[in-house]
Design a protein that fits this description.
- The structure is a single chain.
- By secondary structure, this protein is an all-alpha fold.
- 45% of the residues lie in helices and 2% in strands.
- It has nine helices and two strands; from the N terminus they run H-H-E-H-E-H-H-H-H-H-H.
- The protein has helices spanning 9-19, 30-51, 61-66, 87-98, 109-113, 133-145, 150-155, 160-172, 174-177; strands spanning 56-57, 79-80.
- It has a two-stranded parallel ribbon.
- Strand 1 (56-57), helix 3 (61-66) and strand 2 form a beta-alpha-beta unit.
- Helix 1 (9-19) crosses helix 2 and helix 6 (133-145) crosses helix 8.
- It starts with 8 loop residues before the first helix and ends in a 28-residue tail after the last helix.
- The relative contact order is 0.13.
Length: 205
């Protein structure tokens, strides 16, 4: 496997210069964070076009469920290998991959042990935007796999605040899931054919 490192600072500077006049007077926010992800996506797709490579997206089921991804950024690619794997399962798979030879980790321990982060701003953590995955994944399992509603999830012992937050995130993210590449199905209800809901479900008068 070859490793290539492509800096994005120059491209980011070019985007910021192009947008400076239009963004004048506005603070940097999620817009600039997403630009970084989209630059990465552009570079990966350029390599795919030039060399005929297939870009594998990195999104897992937990992130796809709640829309924790950047359209045309980390969601850009041709195949989503772990799109039906909850985040906690991804960690289990990583540790399992390392277990045959504990003296030589295929996946560096620093990647597995550090706090999950999209790495789009200093000290960013997934927990800044989402419940901890140990809380999020069981709620997602109940809501998606078991088709449970709010009251049933609360009866399972999850806090009302967490349940309401997760349900709202999942329902709002359908438009992103519709644009995701295909991937491997391992659960009873993978996103796509198994679970497809309207993108809009309210109409104003």
């Amino acid at each position: 496997m070859q490793l290539r490192e492509l800096p994005i600072a120059g491209a980011m500077d070019a985007y910021e210069r192009t947008l400076r006049e239009l963004f004048a007077g506005r603070q940097a926010d999620l817009t600039e964070e997403n630009l970084q992800a989209r630059i990465r996506g552009n570079l990966l797709m350029a390599l795919s076009n030039k060399f005929g490579w297939l870009v594998l997206t990195t999104g897992n089921k937990s992130e796809m469920a709640v829309g924790y991804s950047t359209l045309y950024g980390d969601s850009a690619g041709g195949y989503a290998v772990i799109k039906d794997c909850p985040k906690t399962l991804v960690y289990e798979l990583a540790r399992h991959r390392n277990s045959p030879d504990p003296e030589r980790d295929v996946i560096p321990a620093s990647i597995i042990d550090r706090a999950p982060s999209a790495e789009l701003r200093p000290d960013q953590r997934d927990a800044d935007s989402l419940p901890p995955y140990e809380v999020l994944d069981p709620i997602l399992d109940g809501y998606i796999e078991d088709d449970l509603g709010r009251e049933a999830l609360v009866l399972r012992g999850y806090s009302e605040a967490d349940v309401d937050r997760v349900i709202a995130l999942v329902d709002r993210a359908e438009y992103k899931r519709r644009q995701a590449p295909p991937g491997i199905k391992i659960t009873t209800r993978a996103f796509g054919r198994d679970r497809r809901v309207p993108i809009t479900n309210r109409y104003g008068g």
